[in-house]
Amino acid sequence: MIMILVDKKILAGGISMVAVGLIIIFYLNSSTPVWQEGMTQAQTDELLIKQQENRNYTNLAGMVAGVGFLLVLISFGARKKKGGEKPVEKDEKPKDFNQN
Q: Rounded to two decimals, what is the model's pTM?
């Protein structure tokens, strides 16, 4: 039986961050402001500002999902074995390659 050592708290936090980031990305992509025919210059400027805000929030949500994914990866190496092997000390001298 293969045992994978995982820190469950970090794994749960990472999975939740990935989920929240993806949900926010899907929501922002579905509510992107769009151009309408006959808009005035003030409405056009407001639309461009809203589109830029939407892109910025999408980038932020992508960063949250990315950090969550990194936490998931880190969780696989964060837990140490209980009573693991102790490092072996060697008293041997290294070979001297200059001597024949």
A: 0.69
